Amino acid sequence: MTDMAASSFVRQDLVPERPAPAKTTGFIGLVRSRLLSSPGNILLTILGLLLVWYTVIPAFRFLLVDAVWTGKDRTACLAENAGHAVGACWPYIQAKLAQLIYGFYPEAQRWRVNLTFLLAAILLLPLLVPRLPAKGVNSGLFFFAFPAVALFLLHGGGIAGFGVSWTAGLLQLFDESIGGAGQLLVNLSKTSAIAPLFWGLGKLIVLIGLLIHWLIYPLSWLRDQMQASSQPVWVDFLVTAVIVSAVLFVLGGGVRTGRRALIGSLATFAGIAVVIKLMGLDRGGLPIVDTRLWGGLLVTLVIAITGIVASMPIGIALALGRRSSIPLIRIFSITFIEFWRGVPLITVLFFATYMLPLFVPGNFAVDGLMRALIGVALFTGAYLAEVIRGGLAAVPRGQPEAASALGLSWWKTTSLIVLPQALRYVIPGIVNTFIGLFKDTSLVSIVALFDLLGSLRASFADPVWTTPTTAFTGFAFAGLIYFVFCFGMSRYSLFVENRLNAHRRH
Fold first, then answer.
1. For residues 121 and 439, what is the distance between their CA atoms, to the nearest angstrom?
2. Which site in 168, 216, 245, 448 is 20 to 30 Å from 484, CA atoms measured?
């Protein structure tokens, strides 16, 4: 019995050899497992190869193989002179490179643009490297100090006053606007059917303007006294530094805990004083270059970076406002978001360029480039608000409840717990909006601003470089520039996303 049971489970002959497993590594393994593993994959592989054959290879030949690399005019890029079918005309790009970068910026002043680019790179690169220290100081310099320095570098000009003069001027402008509105209603009452209502409302507004005038009179008087001194900028600067530092010292806790705020304020004003002295802002500053002369990559970067930086706080504020429990704030945020998201960017640019001056006082001029920047920032902020609202909705409800149980206020809960998680969730959506904004900067050419594509189109009018391939070369070069910036933002966002979500990786 035992022998029979044992023999039934023992093989009497050798097992035949099995075929070797299919190779899954290396190039052959990749082709076998990924490209030719099924009829569907075989079909997709064939279609992909055909796509590469009819698109990538001709583009490669046009840009590199058949391209002309040297020449002084259009004759070098003609087929009869080159002896073969001509591809890209790179001498044209070399000749127009300055125009594509600076536009019509005066050649003698282009060092200011180069210095601005250099400062931006020096301040931005440390922010992009996570391991580098002093992120707070670096962020303050990039987001607050650099825009002011870049403005005076690129546009030029100086300052006639400082904080006290600027505050007094804004309050005086506000007072004049109220008084003008009241006087307008009084004048309308002479020809209106509801004259008593207009007259009474106008007189009330004029009275309010008069009260505001007397309230700001001490500040206006102080401004006039400083302007009458021999050094109005430095006197105003000193008074502003004393007032601001004293306020921060008191708000920081006074003698007990306010020293840190006082030291930070004094250090900030010392840095501002150094910038004013180095750039000569108290003596008129650099020569003024009108923004109508700006163009090329300079305008593209100014609009894109300003729109990205300015739209982020707008989007966060609108997203929080849309979720607010206060009806007035919630209704305003919803109305703002839906209005700007329902209007094309072209319409926004036209409105900001041609209609915005009608809504400001007559003695207050808004630069053309600044109008476009305002429109782009508001438009992008509305889109970012919905992206960030999605991130806020994705935060688990237990997070704010736990913070409330610990006794944290709404501001601390939002800024320290809810908002960081929400922004981490929607990094792809935020960067996608930024990439779309960078490409949409080309639309400003319709309001007479020569960005990269606008300067490129303007260069086509030069008969010295009119060839059959000039336009293709120019658009290919512009496309490469857009691709480099957009692809760089995309890859960096992927790096940040992976780094912030390291706790989710298995």
1. 21
2. 448
Assign 284 a pLDDT band (cuts: 50, 70, 90).
confident
Burial of 120 (0-12, 13-18, 19+ CB in 10 A): middle
- Report the C-alpha gap between 338 and 320 in whole angstroms: 15
Coil/strand/helix, residue 70:
coil
Distance between CA 470 and CA 456 in Å, rounded? 10
- How large is the angle between the packed helices 195-215 and 217-227, nearest 10 degrees? 50
H or E segment to which residue 151 belongs: helix 146-154
- State if pTM tops 0.85: no
Q: What is the pLDDT of residues 287-344, one digit of tens each?
A: 999 988 998 999 999 999 999 999 999 999 999 999 988 899 999 999 999 999 998 9
Long-range contacts, 460-468 (Cβ 8 Å, 24+): 462/96, 463/74, 464/73, 464/74, 464/95, 465/73, 465/74, 465/77, 465/89, 465/92, 465/95, 465/96, 466/74, 467/74, 467/77, 467/78, 467/86, 467/89, 467/92, 468/86
Decide: helix, strand or coil at residue 162.
coil
Which residues 6+ apart lie within 8 Å of 37 measured at CB?
none
